[in-house]
UniProtKB/TrEMBL annotation:
Protein name listed in UniProt: Major facilitator superfamily MFS_1
Sequence intervals crossing the membrane: 41-63, 75-95, 143-164, 170-192, 219-241, 253-273, 303-323, 344-367, 373-393
Membrane topology classification: Multi-pass membrane protein
Gene3D superfamilies xref list: MFS general substrate transporter like domains (1.20.1250.20)
Top-level taxonomic group: Bacteria
GO cellular component: plasma membrane
Chief localisation class: membrane
Keywords of the record: Cell membrane, Membrane, Transmembrane, Transmembrane helix
Record-linked InterPro entries: MFS_trans_sf (IPR036259)
PANTHER family: INTEGRAL MEMBRANE EFFLUX PROTEIN-RELATED (PTHR23513), STAPHYLOFERRIN A TRANSPORTER (PTHR23513:SF11)
Length: 401
């Protein structure tokens, strides 16, 4: 008989995950704003984003022991690397202001690598909880995003305020505290231990259904392509918004932190939308992202800018949750959960590494503020066309379990 997780246990587990994920939001705002301030050019921030994402991308491909450890001990692999990150962030807090460029790139590579491991562990853990019957696919997709987005929201706002008031050093100390709080996840360990799989969960029961499994496999690859397209949209936001804000007079790190936090609030609220309604509002949410992409970088005042950022975060996360839920529904074993969790993370990080470099090359020698139309075009192509088509196709294909 399958054991379901109690609501109180779920709430505590997600709260502890959210607490340590505050560091993710602080990393993003701090590194992107510092990159834009130091480099003053599109290609520089493109290089920083490339390094931030290429290091974990290569590590996932090259280090097989790490992949096995994530599959077998996802909770432990959240905690241990973050302890290393705690030390790295503390050292960055003491040296970054003085050392500049080289330290920034090294810190970006280290912290985003640790963040990458944590996010893949969450993907794997939620997939395994779904396969073992402790959570349904919709709840798994929603909770993984609730934990991430609530932490990112707090981290975005906190980092912007600290940079404006105290400088980057204190932000890195805050990241260290957030990473250290992952030790509290040890209290959640008894709730997420999974028992042995049944024969059906090991894949033995699928030998008689090759055609259905082939269809499910094709759909999974399509959904993986959808996640890669979402990475293009997110890369566009992370590239164009800090670059344009930093180059515009009268805009501070606190303003950028506020806009990022507004996007985080939108993403967080998307996790509370009822499953039965997500299909109906999915296309409207994609349209909201298209409009937000076109207007968030325009000089329309902070209130309207925050509204547009909220729309971007809400629509983006509605789409991401729907795609992740569709992936979870098609997984049948813990091994598949680890395999596709790794593929999703690699695809997302690989595109997140390449897209900013392409943006930087396209905008080299250009005035960033004058190129906001490029971000608008990204929104139209990804969220206006490709993602709706991907979601529509996935809903037309059956789920074989």
């Amino acid at each position: 008989m399958m054991v379901r997780m109690h609501k109180t246990s779920l709430a505590i587990f997600v709260t502890l995950l959210s607490l340590t994920m505050v560091g993710e939001g602080m990393i993003t705002v701090t590194l992107l704003w510092t990159s834009a301030s130091m480099g003053q050019s599109p290609i520089f921030i493109g290089v920083v984003l490339f390094i931030m994402n290429m290091v974990p991308f290569l590590a996932q491909i090259l280090f097989k022991p790490m992949r096995r450890a994530i599959e077998q001990h996802p909770l432990g692999m959240i905690i241990m690397p973050r302890m290393i990150g705690c030390v790295a962030a503390s050292l960055a807090g003491m040296t970054l202001d003085a050392s500049g460029l080289i330290t920034l790139i090294a810190v970006a590579a280290c912290l985003t690598f640790i963040s990458f491991i944590s996010q893949q562990c969450i993907e794997t853990l939620m997939g395994q909880l779904t396969v073992t019957g402790m959570l349904d696919a919709g709840t798994s997709a929603r909770l993984s995003q609730t934990a991430l987005q609530s932490g990112v929201f707090v981290g975005n706002a906190l980092a912007g305020i600290l940079i404006a008031k105290s400088g980057t050093g204190w932000v890195f100390f805050g990241i260290a505290v957030s990473f250290a709080s992952s030790l509290l996840l040890l209290f959640a360990a008894p709730w997420v231990r999974m028992g042995r799989e049944s024969p059906a969960q090991t894949g033995a029961g699928h030998a008689a259904m090759p055609a259905q499994r082939h269809m499910s496999e094709r759909t999974l690859w399509l959904l993986l392509a959808g996640m890669a397209l979402l990475a293009v949209q997110l890369s566009g936001f992370n590239f164009f918004v800090p670059l344009i804000f930093e180059s515009r007079s009268g805009t501070s790190a606190a303003d950028y932190g506020l806009v990022s936090a507004a996007a985080g609030v939108g993403a967080l609220l998307a996790t509370f939308v009822r499953f039965s309604l997500r299909g109906y509002i999915g296309h409207a949410a994609c349209g909201a992202v298209v409009i937000g992409d076109a207007l968030v970088t325009q000089p329309v005042g902070m209130v309207l800018t925050s509204v547009f950022a909220f729309a971007i975060g809400f629509g983006f996360n509605i789409s991401r949750i729907r795609i992740r839920q569709a992936i979870f529904e098609r997984l049948t074993t813990k091994q598949e959960s680890a395999l596709w969790g790794g593929r999703v993370t690699v695809a997302f990080r690989g595109v997140s590494a390449g897209a900013p470099m392409l943006f930087g090359l396209l905008l080299m020698g250009q005035v960033p503020v004058a190129q906001s139309w490029v971000f608008a075009a990204i929104g139209v192509l990804t969220m206006g066309v490709a993602i709706p088509a991907c979601l529509l196709f996935s809903t037309r294909t059956p789920v074989w379990r």
